[in-house]
Design brief:
Length: 387
């Protein structure tokens, strides 16, 4: 799950990571009077969306007076933001964070990532922060520093010192930085993150070390260990995805027009690949689970058909734990409860497949059966194109 900047900063706070004083977060509909701006200023007004590059897109603005900060915050709420990270999509700004701003002497890039090859975390850092790290990695790979992290013990003292030297951290901020980097790794490990990024970490004009931005991505599979995170709204999930999650169906919306109902995540992936090979695009990834009941199949149809892009539904089920005749009955029962107004293509394989196919054939429902996944995918692609 991706966290918004202020949600990440709330976690940073617990680890004593130095930041600018926050004046508050307001949502659409809130009064800007809720912002507490007592300091001398200036202030920085920041759109809370799940994408970087806000600065260049008008999502980060400086204000000299509280009145100006309130006005900017009000303007930003509801604004559509397109940054170089949103793939052309516009994100609506639903929340705005206001902080006391600082003058910036230096911007540094630092993150903790999961190094999949090493099966361990690693710090990625660069003395040249602020700009796109991807671009820097491309043009000046030698300027990227990588430090492996032992997941059992975290960052060791010699590593924090070496990193501080490599990043040319001023003598005055040395201790602060070594403590900061150790804590950043702790944030990563203790919150089951897959990414913790601070871009930029700055040395302010007054010589303070401050984390100006935060980006945290946590591993959904570890949510059960983090009750506070599980309670957070998932800003990225669509309405259909939230609904599916609530009833225990693994569903991820995609851009195509072929709705897929599959049991097992591996088979679902193979189905998406096969649809693609047949010249089509799946509208979703959906895993009904191993022991899909009539109820679960009915709900899966309802979920799939909520997506208006769906022009054909491909059911690809392997009857292992569940027998094919039971699954076929489930499909027939479900089609009585849900109006399926697009072509339905079913491929069944596994135990009692003969009986299963018979049930489908005798049901009187318009179903195109296929005896292989390849045939099913081709039929689904043709049906979607014709529909
Ligand atoms: P991003 O563009 O979405 O990554 O948003 P950031 O939080 O990183 O802000 C973008 C840029 O705005 C930073 O790199 C800074 O140059 C600038 N910025 C953010 N906060 C402040 C601040 O308090 N003072 C000043 N002077 N600049 C800031
Ligand atoms: Mn940033």
């Amino acid at each position: 799950m991706k966290l918004l900047e202020y949600e990440g900063k709330e976690i940073f706070e617990r680890y004593g990571i130095p930041m600018l004083p926050r004046c508050g977060v307001i949502r659409i509909g809130d009064s800007t009077e809720r912002l507490h701006m007592e300091g001398p200023g200036p202030w920085v007004v920041k759109a809370q969306v799940l994408a970087g590059g806000r600065g260049k897109a008008g999502g980060v603005k400086l204000a000299k007076t509280p009145a100006e900060a309130r006005e900017l915050a009000g303007q930003m709420l509801g604004m559509k933001l397109i940054t170089h990270q949103t793939q052309g999509k516009a994100l609506t700004v639903e929340e705005v964070l206001v902080e006391e701003a600082c003058g910036i002497a230096r911007e540094i890039y630092i993150s903790v990532v999961l190094d999949r090859k090493a099966a361990a975390p690693a710090i990625i850092a660069s003395a040249e922060g602020g700009m796109s790290i991807e671009e820097l990695a491309h043009t000046h790979p030698e300027k990227i520093i990588k430090v492996p992290v032992d997941p059992e013990v975290g960052l060791l003292d010699f590593q924090t010192r070496q990193l501080a030297f490599d990043l040319k951290i001023p003598q005055k901020n040395f201790r602060e930085f070594t403590e900061f980097s150790r804590q950043l790794v702790k944030v990563f490990l203790e919150n089951d993150a897959s990414l913790v990024e601070v871009n930029p970490l700055v040395i302010s004009s007054e010589g303070r070390l401050l984390a100006i931005d935060s980006k945290i991505v946590t591993d959904d599979n570890a949510l059960f260990r983090h009750k506070d995170q599980a309670a957070r709204p998932d800003h990225e999930a669509t309405e259909i995805e939230k609904e599916a999650k609530a009833i225990g169906i693994n569903y991820i919306g995609l851009d195509g027009d072929i709705g897929c109902m599959v049991n097992g995540a591996g088979l679902a992936m193979a189905t998406l690949d096969t649809v693609k090979m047949a010249g089509g695009d799946a509208a979703n990834f959906l895993d009904v689970g191993g022991g899909a009941s009539v109820d679960q199949i009915t709900r899966a149809f309802q979920i799939i058909l909520k997506d208006p892009k769906v022009k054909a539904v491909l059911v690809n089920i392997f009857g292992g734990i569940m027998k094919c005749d039971n699954i076929a009955s489930g499909v027939v029962e479900a089609s009585k409860k849900v109006e399926i107004d697009v072509p339905l293509i079913v491929r069944l394989e596994g135990t009692n497949v003969k009986e299963g196919r018979e049930i489908l054939a005798k049901s009187g429902i318009k179903i195109a059966q296929a005896s292989s996944l390849w045939e099913a995918a081709q039929k689904a692609v043709a049906a979607a194109k014709a529909n």
